[in-house]
Design goal:
The structure is a homodimer. Chain A is an alpha/beta fold and about 325 residues long. The first copy, chain A, has 3 domains: about 10-65, 434 Repressor (Amino-terminal Domain), CATH 1.10.260.40; about 70-165 and about 295-320, Response regulator (Rossmann fold); about 165-290, Rossmann fold (3-Layer(aba) Sandwich), CATH 3.40.50. Chain A has helices spanning about 10-20, 25-30, 40-50, 55-65, 80-95, 110-120, 135-145, 165-180, 195-210, 225-235, 245-260, 295-310, and strands at about 70-75, 100-105, 125-130, 150, 160-165, 185-190, 215-220, 240-245, 270-275, 285-290, 315-320, 320-325. In chain A, strands 2-1-3-4-5-11 form a 6-stranded parallel β-sheet, sandwiched between helices. In chain A, helix 9 links the parallel strand 6 and strand 7 (about 215-220). In chain A, helix 1 (about 10-20) packs across helix 3 (about 40-50) and helix 5 packs across helix 12. Chain A is elongated. The termini of chain A are far apart. Chains A and B meet through helix 4, helix 5, strand 2 and helix 11 of A and helix 4, helix 5, strand 2 and helix 11 of B. Chain B binds a DNA duplex (16 and 16 nucleotides) through helix 2 and helix 4.
Chain lengths: ~325, ~325
DNA sequence: TTGTATGCGTTATCAA
DNA sequence: TTGATAACGCATACAA
C-alpha cells in the first residue's frame, strides 16, 4: 500500500542509497552520533544536502515515542491574559526545540475534558491554563493527561505541578487601597462562574469587605462588552468604586462611563486585574492588580520541560500580585 | 526495541485480543467502516471502552500520511491583529478536526525561512501570516512549504492562495478624510521595515499625499511603546494629523499625548489601522481603518482546507477595509 | 465480512 | 564502526 497523500519525496533510504551506506548510518549521522567514520559522514551529508532530505517528524515521533510538541489549552484565545501566557510558553519552549499547539475551549467547561484528552493524544505534554472544568472531572482525567501543568488553578489532592497567582492577596490589597480612599460601597463585576480565579476573588472580597464597606456583586463576563454593558447597573447600586473581574471588563466599563459622562475617578473609582499592556493606555490609566503573565507561561514551561525529561519539576510557584495604583482610583468625594 | 517513553498503555492489539478479533477489525470499527458485523462491532466497542483505548495519533499519522495538524506562523504573538487571525483559523480548523500549531517568528525576517520549513515538517499545511521574509527566499522555499496560504502578503510569480487586504484603499480613505478636515501636514509612524503591508501603506501614502499635504515619515515600530516614544517627535514636525502603522502604535501615541496634555483631536488628529477591539475603548475612540481580522483567518483556513482535500481552493480574496471615523480625528483648527 | 501481511519512515538492538 | 533487522501503532490491499 501507500499513503494516500503523496509519500514523502525523499526518505532516509534514498539518502542511504545515494551515499552507499545503510539507512542506520544515515540515521546516525542525522542524529549526530559521533561513531561514524568521517568519510561516511561526509558522503551522507552530501547526499542528504543534494537530495534536500529532511527527516519525517511523524516517523521520528513514532519511533522515538515523542512528538516534540506540547499543547496549551486556554478558555479564550481572545483574552490578552491568555495570549501572554501562550506567548511566554511558546517562546520558552521553542528554545528547547518544542513546538506549541494551541487549543481554545471557548469558555465551555463541559467540553474541556474531551478537548484536553483529545489534544493530549497529539503531543507530549499539556499546559492547562485556567481550566474551567470541574475539579472531579479534572481529577479523574488527570492520569490520562500526564504530564501536564496547571496554570491559575489548583486542585485538591492532585499532585501535579502548578503555577498560580495569589488573587486573594491581590483582592486584599485592592480592598485596603479602596478603604484607605474612604470608599464605603463597592461593586464587583463578576467574571465567568466557571473561572476558579473569579471564585477566589469573589470569596476573598466577601470576607475582606465585611465591616468595611457594602458589597454588590453583578454578573458580568470576561470581555470588554460585558463590562460596557453592566457599567450602568453597577453605578446604579450606589457604589463609588468598582472592582472588575479583569482589565478587559474594567476598560469596557471605563468606555461606558466616558460615553455617559461619568467622571472616573471623580465620581467612581475603577480597578482591574491582570495589568494587560492596554491597562497603561486607558484614560485615565487603569489601577490594576498586576500579574506576571508571560512569566506564568515561562514557569509553566520550566515544569513541563522537567517532566518531559523525567526529572523532578521545580516546586510549585505562586506569584503574589502587585497592586498598580494609577489613575482610575481616587479618594471618595461626597 | 521499545520507545524510551513509556509505550502507549493500550494499543489496537490489546483491544483486538480482548474482543477476540483481529487488529484490522478493530481499526475498521474505530474508523466507522460500515462493513463490520454488528456483533463484532459491539464487542470491539465494549473492549475499547473498558480498556480506555485511544488510537495513537502519531501512528495514525504515519500510516495515513497526515497529521491532522496545521501551523500558523506570525511575526509576533503579542500583536492583537495576529492573535485575531490565529483565533479565526483555530476556530475554523477545529470544526474540521484539525489542530493548530503556532509559531512566533519574533519579527526576525532572516529566521523565518528556516522556522517555516522546520514547522512544515510537523504539520500538513501552513498559514504564513504577514511573513517578513524576502520575496525571493519565500519563492525558493515555496515548493517545500506546500500546501500553504499567505495572509497579508502577495508574492509576484507565486501561484499560491492568498488572503489579503487592500491597504492602499485604506490609506486613500484616510487621506481623503484628513484632507476633507483641512489638514495640510501629516506624519506617518512607520512600522517594521520588513512588513510588506507597511511598505504598501507608505508608498500609497506618498502618492496620495502629493499636492495635498506635507508628509513626514518617522521610523517607529509595531507596539504601544513605539508609538508612545515617537509621539513627541511626530508632533514636533508640525504635523496636525498622525497616521500610525497600526492601532497599537496609535494608542501608544494617544497615551503620550494624554500625559503631556496634548489635546486629541483638538491639537492633533490620530488614525490607526486594524480596528483591534481596544480601538473602541481608547479615549477618544480611535479613528481607524477596520480590517476583518478573524475573517482573514477563516478565509485562510477555507483555502488551506481545500488544498488539504486536494480540491481547488477558492479564489484569492482581498478585503477592502472600511474607515471607521470615530473620535480621534477632527477638522483642523488654527 | 474477516484475517493476514505489508508498509508508513524512523530509531535502536544486536551481531558482525 | 557498520549493517541487517525488529520494533513503533496503525491502516489497508489482498486473500480467504
Amino acid at each position: 500500500m501507500r499513503a494516500f497523500e503523496r509519500p514523502q519525496a525523499v526518505t532516509i533510504r534514498d539518502v542511504a542509497r545515494v551515499a552507499q551506506v545503510s539507512p542506520a548510518t544515515v540515521s546516525r549521522v542525522m542524529n549526530r552520533r559521533n561513531s561514524v567514520d568521517p568519510e561516511l559522514t561526509r558522503r551522507v551529508q552530501q547526499a542528504a544536502a543534494s537530495l534536500g532530505y529532511q527527516p519525517s517528524a511523524i516517523a521520528q515521533g513514532l519511533a522515538r515515542g515523542r512528538t516534540g510538541l506540547i499543547a496549551i489549552m486556554v478558555p479564550d484565545l481572545g483574552n490578552p491574559m491568555f495570549q501572554s501566557v501562550l506567548r511566554g510558553i511558546s517562546r520558552a519552549a521553542v528554545v528547547e526545540d518544542y513546538r506549541v499547539l494551541v487549543t481554545d475551549s471557548h469558555e465551555m467547561p463541559l467540553e474541556e475534558p474531551l478537548l484536553a484528552r483529545e489534544t493530549r493524544l497529539r503531543v507530549d505534554g499539556l499546559v492547562l491554563c485556567a481550566p474551567r472544568a470541574h475539579d472531579h472531572e479534572l481529577s479523574e482525567l488527570a492520569p490520562k493527561l500526564e504530564p501536564f501543568v496547571l496554570v491559575n488553578r489548583r486542585i485538591a489532592g492532585l499532585a501535579t505541578s502548578t503555577v498560580s497567582v495569589d488573587y486573594g492577596a491581590g483582592v486584599r490589597a485592592v480592598v485596603a487601597h479602596l478603604t484607605a480612599l474612604g470608599h464605603k460601597h463597592v461593586a464587583y463585576l463578576s467574571g465567568p462562574m466557571a473561572s476558579v480565579s473569579n471564585q477566589e476573588r469573589l470569596s476573598t472580597l466577601h470576607e475582606a469587605a465585611r465591616g468595611r464597606f457594602e458589597l454588590d456583586v453583578l454578573e458580568c463576563g470576561s470581555m470588554h462588552e460585558d463590562g460596557y454593558e453592566v457599567a450602568d447597573r453597577a453605578l446604579a447600586t450606589g457604589a463609588t468604586a468598582i472592582i472588575a473581574y479583569n482589565d478587559l471588563v474594567a476598560i469596557g466599563a471605563l468606555g461606558k462611563f466616558q460615553q455617559t459622562g461619568v467622571a472616573v475617578p471623580g465620581k467612581v473609582s475603577v480597578v482591574g486585574f491582570d495589568d494587560i499592556p492596554f491597562a497603561r493606555y486607558s484614560m485615565p490609566m487603569l489601577t490594576t492588580v498586576a500579574v506576571p503573565q508571560e512569566e506564568l507561561g515561562r514557569e509553566a514551561w520550566q515544569r513541563l520541560s522537567a517532566m518531559l525529561r523525567h526529572e523532578e519539576p521545580p516546586a510549585d510557584v505562586c506569584f503574589t500580585p502587585r497592586l498598580e495604583v494609577r489613575g482610575t482610583t481616587a479618594p471618595l468625594r461626597p
